[in-house]
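REQUEST FORM: STRUCTURE PREDICTION
Request ID: SP-0412
Submitted by: Lab K.M.
Chain count: 1
Length (residues): 258
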Amino acid sequence: MKIFSYNVNGLRSAVRKGLVEWLSGEGPDFLCLQETKLQDAQYPVLPFQEIGYESHFFCAKKKGYSGVAILSRCSPDKVVYGMGIPCYDDEGRFLRADFGEVSVVSVYHPSGTSGDERQAFKIRWLEDFLAYVTDLRKERPNLIICGDYNICHENIDIHDPIGNANSSGFLPEERQWMSRFLDAGFVDTFRYLYPERQEYSWWSFRSYARAKNKGWRLDYCMVGDSLRSLVREASILGEITHSDHCPVTLTLEETRNH
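STATUS: Completed
RESULT:
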């Protein structure tokens, strides 16, 4: 079972840059998208349908902002749009699809880079998100939560930990939250397999950051502890350039009920 996650920073732009052709060649079972930046009527269903994918998407009320989607080769048993918390759901940040005993989530955590107000919003979100998924795991233990977490967890996850010590995305309270999230029963699959590998999933558009590999690892394929033993591979596809982020991938051994 292959799961890809990709913050596309505008789905229509990524499609123009060859996203559909790339996806057709890769052929994962699931693709979680973040920052689709479109409204329901603008979603390019047909190109994905033509290469064998069913699309489910959850858009922000604000035009050209946020939004998540899940593409799958098979139909989900159930789709849940949002977390039932209006201030987050209005921004289209959380989408869940159930496939047998497995639940796939595409999540887009808020950024706090635009100022104190959004940073405070991000911190509130983190606490509410953790409470929500901890509770959800009691009902749906086989959780796969992929997306842009907008946090680098450890020094190895960012090109300049000293210079960014006071930057949103690498603040002590954000990093501590990530530790609590993992301690609550979730697995960072890339770091689980590769404790010392230094790779990034996002680069600023400024100062040729990508060419110089001055990046941040903000994108994760997380799984509940019950799936830890099924993790077979994880990767970061830094050469893929439809966005300022790149795809992150997870391969799980098939569960019997999937």
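NOTES: The chain has a mean pLDDT of 97.
Reviewed by: T.R.
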